[in-house]
TrEMBL record:
Residue ranges occupied by any Serine hydroxymethyltransferase-like domain in the UniProt entry: 168-568
Keyword Transferase tagged: yes
Tagged with keyword Protein transport: no
UniProt keywords, alphabetically: Methyltransferase, One-carbon metabolism, Pyridoxal phosphate, Transferase
Highest taxon, organism lineage: Eukaryota
InterPro entries per record: PyrdxlP-dep_Trfase, PyrdxlP-dep_Trfase_major, PyrdxlP-dep_Trfase_small, Ser_HO-MeTrfase, Ser_HO-MeTrfase-like, Ser_HO-MeTrfase_PLP_BS, SHMT-like_dom
Lineage, top ranks: Eukaryota, Viridiplantae, Streptophyta, Embryophyta, Tracheophyta
Pathway annotation from the record: One-carbon metabolism; tetrahydrofolate interconversion
Annotated protein name in UniProt: Serine hydroxymethyltransferase
GO biological process entries: glycine biosynthetic process from serine; methylation; tetrahydrofolate interconversion
Alphabetized PANTHER family for the sequence: SERINE HYDROXYMETHYLTRANSFERASE, SERINE HYDROXYMETHYLTRANSFERASE 7
NCBIfam families referenced in this protein's UniProt entry, alphabetically: PRK00011.1
Pfam families, per the entry: SHMT
Length: 621
């Protein structure tokens, strides 16, 4: 126990007149630093180690107490005894304090001929004890300065003690889970077509102080002050987004604030449609995304796009697996959607944007592309560009684009003419960018996630480089190599191949349930996802899997590596087959055959030995 200043009482609990959470936290955090409270309802500064030592040295050992002395007290409580002549350097102290000029008060106290100075700290009236001649802001004799700065030191320590701890120290439980996930990512073969591995710079921006700032609104027009740097950041991100897709800023605008692509899509509908207006997108079992509208076969509206708007899907041709453009046109002319959507989640082929444009013009629809999956390919000019034909283009930023999780909206600016029909007026329709920006904020979102915007800007800078183009070219080569390797082994792929980064493996030909195959792969440390194949009767038990190459290409895999991956996939299919034969296809029976399955353990070892050869972007193991 450290000794207290004479005449002071033992502080048993946080002083009641400073019971704000701020002080309570200080009080809790600095323990076991000594508290020297003048009375049970007041406190005095005794803070830095030096000051504490001085306090200890200059005071007899009486009324020893643990605790904190902050050096100022509430004017609601009696004035504290002034501390001894602590030596403090001259600097402007206590940024948290607002000085109130009228409040200098002489203390009528024989022992202590000092001045009290009133302050407001975080809205709480406080009083700082000072020696008589010394000005706290321009001290004439530094040796007479009070413990103001030492009080600041206590607070610095207190803030650092909760604010600057590593995750491992602050929250070992979360740290441990995150470590396990890190190992999982490193040791496995990642084939989920919508996933990728971001670089360290992107991670750094994500885990940065930028998360602290509120900046609702657009650059230059924010709700809150202090956004000069955030404005610069968002403008740079927008500039890079347009550059990455080679877009003219006179013709295209961009909003980088959507938290996800689902939000981005809904912002487009919110901005351009009225409730109940109609949209048309690729059916989910055909490879479309829920955010383009989806009803279950029993008629349940699944996504907000279907809850608030009327949606009618178009489909792929069940024989070929390609979008059936003739049927789409027929349906669109009957349904007259106000927005026609192209783009999907599991479509391995090129989109015929020119044909979409024709159809949209015929029925007077806005043409929107959700290029979430292929945006990296579009940026690298490794597939047709939706920008040549579409009015609005949305995307995720975390798939082939290899940025942080988020959404983005590009919109055509200005006036354009429509020969056929019009969405927003007769004849010439004006496409109002304000409507989209307004839909993002304030209609649907609050403050943008500035750490994500910074991370996106970093990713977009990379997207514009020759290295990124080479990466995307390799993504496609790898997808093609994998497709060929599987087809050589008589596996059936939807559309018999791929034009992009993903392939759809129709497992029905092998008699396998997509779910069972996905489970076996997961146990062998290969991650891919079950996926509906056109003609599937149940969305719960789809007959195929979707396999993508962006993530493993980011780890440096080439075509020969994907030949090995094809071997692993075939082996996993054999294991699934034999477990199904022995235990049945039903999930509850099937899983019984997976426990301690020697084939699975053996394949898992091979998969991990393979995967751990490759480097991991973002972190080293
Ligand atoms: C085509 C498409 N649009 C939208 C989304 C949704 O993206 P997010 O998860 O960012 O909402 C996806 C995600 O898989 C997608 O594939």
């Amino acid at each position: 126990m450290l000794p207290a200043i004479p005449g002071q009482q033992v502080a048993q609990s946080p002083p009641i007149d400073i019971a704000s959470s701020f002080f309570y936290i200080l009080w809790k955090q600095v323990l076991p630093l000594p508290i020297a409270a003048h009375r049970s309802d007041s406190v005095t500064v005794a803070s830095s180690d030096a000051v504490v030592a001085a306090t200890v040295a200059s005071t007899p050992t009486r009324n020893a107490q643990p605790g904190l002395s902050l050096g100022f007290s509430s004017h609601l409580s009696p004035a504290p005894i002034s501390p001894p002549n602590w030596s403090v350097s001259a600097s402007v102290p206590l940024q948290l304090l607002e000085k109130t000029d009228e409040s200098k008060v002489r203390v009528e106290n024989e022992d202590d001929q000092g001045e009290d100075e009133k302050f407001s700290l975080l809205g709480h009236p406080m009083c700082l004890k000072r020696p008589r001649e010394a000005s706290p802001f321009f001290p004439t004799n530094p040796s007479k300065c009070t413990a103001v700065e030492s009080g600041l030191e206590v607070r610095r320590k207190a803030v650092r003690s909760w604010g600057n701890e590593t995750l491992q120290v602050a929250d070992p439980e979360i740290h441990e889970i995150m470590e396990k996930e890190r190992q999982r990512q490193f040791k496995g073969i990642e084939l989920i077509a919508s996933e990728n591995f971001v670089c360290k710079a992107v991670m750094e921006a994500l885990g940065s102080h930028l998360t602290n700032k509120y900046s609702e609104g657009m650059p230059g027009a924010r709700l809150y002050a202090g956004n000069q740097h955030i404005d610069q950041l968002e403008l740079l991100c927008c500039e890079r987004a347009l550059a990455a897709f080679d877009l003219d800023s006179e013709k295209w605008g961009v909003n980088v604030q959507p938290y996800s692509c689902t939000s981005a899509n809904f912002a487009v509908y919110t901005g351009l449609l009225l409730t109940g207006d109609r949209i048309m997108g690729l059916d989910s079992p055909s490879g479309g995304h829920l955010s383009h509208g989806y009803y279950t076969p029993s008629g349940k509206k699944v996504s907000a796009a279907s809850i608030f708007f009327g949606s009618l899907p178009y489909k792929v041709n069940p024989q070929t697996g390609y979008v059936d453009y003739d049927k789409l046109e027929e349906k669109a002319l009957d349904f007259r959607p106000k927005i026609l959507i192209c783009g999907g989640s599991s479509y391995p082929r090129e989109w015929d944007y020119a044909r979409f444009r024709q159809i949209a013009d015929k029925c007077g629809a806005i043409l929107m592309c959700d290029m979430a999956h292929i945006s990296g390919l579009v940026a690298a000019k490794e597939c047709a560009s939706p920008f040549d034909f579409c009015d609005v283009v949305t995307s995720t930023t975390h798939k082939s684009l290899r940025g942080p999780r988020g959404g983005i909206i590009f919109y055509r600016k200005g006036t354009r003419s429509r020969k056929q029909g019009s969405l927003l007026g007769e004849g010439n329709s004006h496409f109002d960018e304000e409507k989209i920006n307004f839909a993002v904020f304030p209609a649907l979102q609050g403050g943008p996630h500035n750490n994500h915007i910074a991370a996106l800007a970093i990713a977009l800078k990379q997207v514009a480089t020759p290295e990124y183009k080479a990466y995307i070219q390799q993504v496609r080569k790898n997808a093609n190599a994998l497709a060929c390797a599987l087809m050589r082994r008589k596996c059936k792929l939807v559309t018999d191949g791929t034009d992009n980064h993903l392939l759809l493996w129709d497992l029905t030909a092998l008699g396998l349930a997509g779910k069972n195959y996905e489970k076996v792969c997961e146990m062998c440390h290969i991650t891919l996802n079950k996926c509906a194949i056109f003609g599937d009767t149940s969305a719960i038990s789809p007959g195929g899997v979707r396999i993508g190459t962006p993530a493993m290409t980011s780890r440096g895999c080439l075509e020969a590596d994907f030949e090995r991956i094809a071997d692993f996939l075939i082996r996993a299919a054999q294991i699934t087959c034999s477990v199904q034969k022995e235990h049945g296809k039903m999930a509850k029976d099937f899983v019984k055959g997976l426990q301690n399955n020697r084939d699975i353990i053996e394949l898992r070892n091979r998969v991990e030995a393979f995967a751990t050869q490759f480097a991991m972007p973002g972190f080293d193991i």
